[in-house]
Amino acid sequence: VQVVESGGGLVQPGGSLRLSCEASGFTFSTYAARWYRQAPGKEREWVAYITSSGVGTNYADSVKGRFTISRDNAKNTVYLQMNSLKPEDTAVYYCTANGVWGQGTQVTVSS
């Protein structure tokens, strides 16, 4: 039972990245999924939520209009498309579903 994040990296302000989170070992399609992030010296904060079907989504105010969460249940994967990135988006990004957390993927926004 695990989820594995990927897709992080270094990007300039204003750039884009797409994070992926692949689940295994459980029936992913029956669970809602969430993305969180944790910046250095700060507490982990919730970023985005998606229902099990993918029909419903919700976002933190800090990312609304810039980030999009989606999922492909056939691939057991949830995505986070991040556009118009800002230096304050720099953090380790984590996904979770079914109470399972991944190891995180680092996103650094810097010129």
Written as H for each helix and E for each strand, in order along the chain, the element string is EEEEEEEEEEE
Number of strands: 11
Strand content: over 45%
Radius of gyration: 13 Å
List the helices and strands and how they pair.
Layout: E1 2-6, E2 9-11, E3 17-24, E4 33-38, E5 45-50, E6 57-59, E7 67-72, E8 77-82, E9 91-97, E10 100-101, E11 105-109
Parallel strand pairs: 2-11
Antiparallel strand pairs: 1-3, 3-8, 4-5, 4-9, 5-6, 7-8, 9-10, 9-11
Labels describing this entry:
111 residues; mainly beta; 7-stranded mixed beta sheet; globular
Overview of this protein structure:
This protein is mostly beta strands. It contains no helices and 11 strands. The chain has strands at about 1-5, 10, 15-25, 35-40, 45-50, 55-60, 65-70, 75-80, 90-95, 100, 105-110. The strands form 2 sheets. Strands 2, 4, 5, 6, 9, 10 and 11 form a 7-stranded mixed beta sheet that branches. Strands 1-3-8-7 form a 4-stranded antiparallel beta sheet, with no helix packed on it. A hairpin with a 6-residue loop joins strand 5 (about 45-50) and strand 6. The relative contact order is 0.33.
Short characterization:
By secondary structure, this protein is mainly β. The chain has no helices and eleven strands.
